[in-house]
Amino acid sequence: MPSRKFADGEVVMGRWPGSVLYYEVQVTSYDDVAHLYTVKYKDGTELALKESDIRSQSSFKPRKSQSSSSSPSRRSSSRSRSRSRSPGRPAKGRRRSASQSREQKEDKKRAIQEASVVLPVLVGDKLSENNTKRYNGEPESTEKNDTSRIIVEQKLKPDLEVKRVLEQYSLRSRKDEKKKEEIYSEKKVFATVKTIEKVPSKTKELEFGGRIGTFLLLFLLPATVFYLLLMCKQDDPSLMNFPPLPALESLWETRVFGIFLLWFLLQVLFSLLPIGKVVEGLPLASGKKLQYRINGFYAFIFSAAAVGILLYFQFELHYLYDHFMQFAVSAVVFSLALSIYLYIRSLKAPEEELAPGGNSGYFIYDFFTGHELNPRIGSFDLKYFCELRPGLIGWVVINLAMLLAEMKIHNLSSPSLSMMLVNGFQLLYVVDALWNEEAVLTTMDITHDGFGFMLAFGDLVWVPFLYSLQAFYLVGHPTVISWPVAAAITVLNCIGYYIFRSANSQKNNFRRNPADPKLANLQFISTATGKGLLVTGWWGFVRHPNYLGDIIMALAWSLPCGFNHILPYFYVIYFICLLVHREARDEHHCKQKYGLAWERYCQRVPYRIFPYIY
């Protein structure tokens, strides 16, 4: 294995990709596999360079000026060659004064101006020329024009001859060629930078505690879901009152797994229907743009119609409540099987299709975070489908089942006010996500994270079975609230939703079309990547205003459950921890990506999520 030449932290000169220019950079790391140095420029830009593109600072020594020594010799040799060619020419003829040179330039300039006037007349429409002369009462003689044409041709003959030769042999003048090379060089710089971004590199910074942490999460996440669901079934769901473990055979039922599988396939069918517009996602590292069909809201309508048909034929939807644990186990088993399939197929995926955060080379870590970025079966995108369809729409169906179960168990003619608030708030959230489905294409889940156990479990288990925790809790622990309290909670939810939706809309619209006239009032900081960082609107208030809206809404969803137990507020606590983790990850990612521009942005917007607090 060849030894590295430059050490970490060493200041060297790095060649800017696609050019011959060297800039001062600092070596940050070295990839032993790809043999690439990661260097950091003064503006914060980080690139991967080969060793041949890096030189030590000592090799850049100032050159001595040779003009004083070389000019006389060149002049003398020029004069000697001039004398040898024409020894009988007088001295005056051997030199050209500056005034004569200016006169010749002026003559050529006047000739070109005359050509611009005369030549269009000679080449233009003859009928128009004759009609003009008739209108002015002039004869149609061309004697004057012929004389002017001869004068212009004589003056421009050398230039025209050169141009004719260049065109004949497909040549270009050195000046034009130089301009073209400069333009090409600029394009090559940006193309090379993009090429460097395309080169897949191993994931160096591991999240979630690395290999050990992800291994433990494979067991901790399902255990957390089962623990919380068992707690909700207890009469006293306090955290210190650990629930008894059920018999293993009671956790599995083939019929329940069949219903779950049928629901998943039904959503696949709805997503494949040729309705809704087809849009392009953001450019991938390879420059390619994937296409997505936006029909999630239609799938929600069709799902609601299917559930309505089941209720019309007297299907007891509270069956979901009675077998809730079995459904959760079925979802865990399915997500695990899907994750295994995703990892196996990712082993054959091209390098450019691997996820930047799931290419560590460690089996457990890549299995958990997702090895392949956008796994597809034909045009069917597995990650995009699971992100919004079976789990998110299933969340609404589960909430409805809990509402019906509450009415049946407590013999109510109508659902409680608390249950109605929880169902209404969360229904608004789901409908908003499906109505603005296109916005999910700009999220890190789609653009950065691979599709592995983390997202598969989160989409199919965590979202439908833990986000419905408040409704599940209210079935066994009914809470009575007054209308004024309900109105206050509704206002709080509306505030959170307004912040969440308006902040996301600003971000998504700006990402897709920064030149949109509707965004003309927004100010931003330009970055070296060509993108901008918003510093006005919600994004000038805090760095992650969409997270602030999420947390406010999560609190509004939990308040209808009262304050007897902390269990319904698990979602709020989890959401705060999740968003703080995401915020820290976003901060690190943006600092690497935008460099000094991100530091300026952080100075301009000091608060991360909570204004004046954090």
Characterise the protein shown here:
The protein has helices spanning 67-85, 91-94, 98-123, 126-135, 143-168, 174-198, 210-233, 254-272, 296-312, 319-322, 324-346, 363-369, 382-388, 390-409, 417-435, 444-447, 453-466, 469-476, 483-512, 545-558, 570-594, 596-604; strands at residues 11-15, 22-31, 36-41, 46-49, 54-55, 277-280, 291-294, 376-377, 380-381, 524-526, 532-534. Strands 4-3-2-1-5 form a 5-stranded antiparallel beta sheet. The chain has 3 domains: 10-59, SH3 type barrels (Roll), CATH 2.30.30.140; 208-480, no CATH class; 482-613, no CATH class. It is of the alpha+beta class and 614 residues long. It is built from 22 helices and 11 strands. The longest helix has 30 residues, at 483-512. Its main location: cytoplasm. Its EC number is 1.3.1.70. Belongs to the ERG4/ERG24 family.
In short:
With 614 residues, the protein is an alpha+beta fold. The protein is 58% helix and 7% strand.
